[in-house]
């Protein structure tokens, strides 16, 4: 179970993972050794799974975001394994989910422009037989985007 200090450390790291151990310890009123032990436990427990730099896609020429909804009639484990393998090799796919509801899968795809999206689309549908409906929606404006998870305290059930 996470306590208040753990949540504070995680919140700080979600905002800036380059903070020094001393800065983190100061922020949660600990010395560096107990702070380091907490961070190590959070990593060992799989709560902290990595530390990354976030990049600006616009400045890298990757300004088109597509949300791709997919239906299929194929549900065998061999087909699924092949589909997952193909998706894993496509760097344009930043998020991939198996869904409940009308569509079977959802992807978040980031590319430079419509031409690059068309190239991606053709590679996808030619690599994975059995996709019965591939529907794409394109983001016009990003209103909110965060990688930070909401770290709220669990309220007791009454």
What's the helix count?
Answer: 5
> What proportion of the residues is helical, as a percent range?
25-40%
**How far from one another are the termini?**
19 Å
What's the shape? elongated
Any low-confidence stretches, pLDDT <50, length ≥5? none
| Proportion in β-strands | 15-25%
| Total beta strand runs | 4
Class from secondary-structure proportions: alpha+beta
SSE series:
HHHEHEEHE
Radius of gyration: 20 Å
Biggest sheet: strand arrangement? 2-3-1-4
Largest sheet: 4 strands, antiparallel
Integer average pLDDT: 95
Provide a short characterization of the protein structure.
The protein is α+β, with helices and mostly antiparallel strands and 158 residues long.
Description:
This protein is α+β, with helices and mostly antiparallel strands and about 160 residues long. The chain contains five helices and four strands; from the N terminus they run H-H-H-E-H-E-E-H-E. The protein has helices spanning about 5-15, 20-25, 30-45, 75-90, 115-125, and strands spanning about 65-70, 95-100, 105-110, 130-140. Strands 2-3-1-4 form a four-stranded antiparallel β-sheet. Strand 2 (about 95-100) and strand 3 form a beta hairpin. Helix 2 crosses helix 3. It starts with a helix and ends in a 20-residue tail after the last strand. About 10% of the residues are buried. The mean pLDDT is about 95.
């Amino acid at each position: 179970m996470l306590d208040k200090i753990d949540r504070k450390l995680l919140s700080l790291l979600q905002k800036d993972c380059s903070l020094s151990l001393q800065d983190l310890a100061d922020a949660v009123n600990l010395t560096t050794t107990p702070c380091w032990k907490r961070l190590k436990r959070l990593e060992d427990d799989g709560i902290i799974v990595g530390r990354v730099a976030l990049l600006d896609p616009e400045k890298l020429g990757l300004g088109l975001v597509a949300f791709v909804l997919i239906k299929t009639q194929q549900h065998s484990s061999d087909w699924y394994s092949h589909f997952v393998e193909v998706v894993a090799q496509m760097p344009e796919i930043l998020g991939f989910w198996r869904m409940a509801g009308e569509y079977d899968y959802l992807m978040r795809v980031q590319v430079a422009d419509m031409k690059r999206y068309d190239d991606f689309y053709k590679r996808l549908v030619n690599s994975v037989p059995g996709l019965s409906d591939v529907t794409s929606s394109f983001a016009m404006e990003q209103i909110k985007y965060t990688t930070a998870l909401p770290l709220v305290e669990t309220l007791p059930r009454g």
